[in-house]
Amino acid sequence: MTTAAKAISLQRLKRRALSLGTVKVFDQALNFLLPVVLVRCLDSVTFGEYRLLWLAVGTVLSLATLNMGGSLYFFLPRADAKQKKTHVHNTLVYFALAGGLSALAVSPWNPLLPAALEPLAKYGALVPAFVALWVSATLLDYLPTIEERIRWQAYASISASGLRALLVAAAAWLSGELRVVLWLLLAAVVVKLALLLTYVYIHHGLDRPWFNRRRFFEQLHYSAPFGVSAGLFSLRGQSDQWVAASLFALSSFAAFTIAALVGQVVHIFRHSVMEAFLPTMSRMEAAGDVRGMLSLNARANVMVGTLLYPMLAFAFAFGEDIVTIIYTSAYVEAGPVMRVYIAGMAAMVIEMGSIVLLLRQGPFALKVNMAALAISVAVSWSAAHYFGLIGAACGSVLAVYVDRSIMLRRVARHTGVPFRALQNWRALGWALATAAASAAFAWIVVDNVLEGRGPLVRLVVGAALLAAAYGAANFRRLTR
């Protein structure tokens, strides 16, 4: 093992990933469970408007930030204190400017406002004000983790997410109106921005210089290709939602977005592990240990797949029961859409973003994502006309497999590491196969023994059977 690899032991990285994972679980659990309250407090059209708001926020965030926050993973670990301060201040300035431009993009006074966003125009300045502040405060989601202050990240994330969920739930419960929800969302994001500025003040200071032109453009030159590529990647996942918002009623769009929430489970595991491993991978790449970096990435992906595949298999087998229990039977049409999404999530276990970042393959990734986005939009739009709501999800799923296939082969050629050695394919295949078999076993038993029983009983028994079967097949792997 090289000196760079010894800097932080694998066990410590696992503990860090677990800590970040706990925070992500809390944050994403709130995002997952908050709609449980909202579907019971808001009518289907108003809930559709709420989901449309977050689709708009996610889209401008994907396009406007240009991975400036993520680029700090590259710059901060190899910078001294003065340079760190410069990069952090430059990033703050950039996010503030990006927030202003994003607000203009979603403003009802924008003559190019997409027709799908017209239902939000009646809320006037509330939507652009929220978008501006949300984008400006986004750096809080990156900075403490990048600087390996995991406890700070945990406290900040839990506080900001908890407050936002509490205020939104209270507003929906007491008023049933999106306008009230928007006012309280503004209050929550102001608190998040205050937390970010407090962190920067404590660890870097807010005194001059606030901006360094040379460092700024150095960072932007590095981050922009990755940012555009990542933005196109995000648009692939969002494009099908824009198709659904454009072609179907708001109530059906709301059900479609509920199905897409399964992606949050993938996000929790992939990003928690990636954020924990990436600083060490960056140091290994800087030390010239490319094979060690790839090996660490492969281990991380096996860790994610072992835990994630049984959850995806369970959701695939019991989709309608899950939707009925959590979101009421009014949104049961989300079940079939969820299955289509899960087919794509299985491939997303193989995380390539960190490798692309560290190997400086942004320009190539940009071309791949442009092609994949075009495929995604064309397939989703066409399939939606032929197959209805489930067709709108097909494009992004196909694009995932196109992307992974091309990028893995590119990394193999660039590094000289054979394709078969880039990932632990045997371990990933075993986890996927045993998860699918366990889910099939659980569904067959439940469908034959508990026919006619309520969805809660079916889910509890099905989960227990799947856990027992999968645990038995993977006992040694899970106890390592």
Short description:
By secondary structure, the protein is mostly helical. It has helices spanning about 5, 10-40, 45-65, 70-75, 80-105, 125-135, 145, 150-175, 180-205, 215-245, 250-260, 260-285, 290-315, 320-325, 335-350, 355-360, 360-385, 395-415, 420, 425-450, 455-475, 475-480. Helix 3 (about 45-65) crosses helix 11, helix 11 (about 250-260) runs parallel beside helix 15 and helix 20 packs antiparallel against helix 21.
Shape: globular
Give the number of helices: 22
Helical content band? over 70%
Give the H and E element order.
HHHHHHHHHHHHHHHHHHHHHH
Q: If you compute it from the alpha carbons, what radius of gyration comes out, rounded to the nearest whole angstrom?
A: 22 Å
| Overall number of structural domains | 1
Main sheet record: none
- Class by alpha and beta content: mainly alpha
End-to-end CA span = 20 Å
Mean pLDDT, to the nearest integer, reads 86
Give me the count of strands.
0
- Beta-strand proportion: under 5%
List unreliable stretches of 5+ residues.
none
